[in-house]
Amino acid sequence: MTKTNAKVDGVFRTRSLGIAASGVQDQYSDGKAAKVWHLYIGGKKRTNEYADSIIRVLKENNVQTVLDAACGTGVDSILLVEAGFTVKSVDASDKMLKYAHKLRWQRHREEKAFEEWEIGEGDWLDLANCEDSIHHPDGGYDCVICIGNSFAHLPDFVGDQAMHKRAINNFHKMLKPGGVLIIDHRNYDHIIKYGKLPNSSSKLYYQGDRIHKIKTSVLTVDGECTMITLDYEIDITGTGLADASDPIREKPDGTLVPISQFRLSYYPHTLVKFNALLEGVFGEDADHKILPDFMSTPPEEGYIPSYLVHIIKRKE
Q1: Residue 224 CB partners (closer than 8 Å, separation 6+)
Q2: pLDDT tier at 8 (50, 70, 90 boundaries)?
Q3: What is the pLDDT averaged over residues 296-315?
Q4: Neighbour-count burial for 240-251, b at 16+ CB within 10 Å, e otherwise
Q5: CB proximity list for 227: less than 8 A, separation 6 or greater
Q6: How does pLDDT run across 97-121, given as a tens digit for each residue?
Q7: How many Å apart are CA 38 and CA 316, to the nearest integer?
Q8: Residue 42: its pLDDT value, please?
Q9: How far is Cα 254 from Cα 263, in angstroms, rounded to an integer?
Q10: Could you report the per-residue pLDDT of 145-171, keeping only the tens digit for each?
């Protein structure tokens, strides 16, 4: 696998340069994205955009215990802890988890819920063996969430989606009977067809007003899309993060600003294939709903969502 990764990385660099973690590459290992992630997502502005939606879905499914399988810097986990859910959080990137641990430490002394919030490194391909950092509840979780287009970071260099199937199967195993998986992906059908991100009014997860530019690249092999790469440019004016090596960009008003850059690559999950992936594990007759941008109904006819959120239930 390492040899395949190196070959692909040599032809088309899939991530910002950094030190890769063992196994599946940690695209956040260089710390570039983690450093400016709070600027990209927009902090409270991000969570306020969809907090009501995700909490509504959890309550509709009688959820109390949640495994956040892609917690990153902890933004969504904090939202859920504040809402009264019992949350365990894992991520494969120690650079991202550093910020989650810091936020927990800042609040745990005065807020009991944050004292009980467990955070640890977790590999989707081996979720059962996170016991050294978090303790899974007997009988499983009411809900596993993997949102923010996180699942698309898992590659498929062989072409059989074996790792995707294994990860979804592990999510399924983490759920108690009747538990739900909430998992999403960008609207890759649109990106593949038009070569750019949808211009949706709802950005859902990423609400930062410092996003200068996101450039989309579509990589095809023998006529089939195999990878989407996004190059991010974040305005870091006045943050104390800029140094002499950062590039300068001109804003529409003529202002010159320092920019932090990072690159992330994604497996392009089309809707048809992702449905088949989920239902191949949960069953074709599983209770499976798809929400455009976490909305029960689109705001208008012809609305093109940025994200497709899947809610699928493990059978009782």
Answers
A1: none
A2: very low
A3: 88
A4: eebeeeeeeeee
A5: 12, 14, 155, 218, 219, 265, 266, 267, 268
A6: 887 778 778 777 777 778 888 888 8
A7: 39
A8: 58
A9: 25
A10: 999 899 999 989 888 999 999 999 999
Closest by CA to 21, choosing from 92, 73, 90, is 92
Tokens read off for 144: 């596993």
Looking at per-residue confidence, does 110 or 198 come out higher? 198
Please give the average per-residue pLDDT across 179-193, as a whole number: 96
Q: DSSP assignment of 73-129, as one string? A: TSHHHHHHHHTT-EEEEEES-HHHHHHHHHHHHHHHTT-HHHHS-EEEE--GGGGGG
Please give the structure tokens belonging to residue 204.
Answer: 């859902």
Residues 273, 88: Cα–Cα separation, whole Å: 29
Active-site positions read 28, 148, 153, 186, 206
Q: For the chain, how many helices (H) and strands (E)?
A: 9, 11
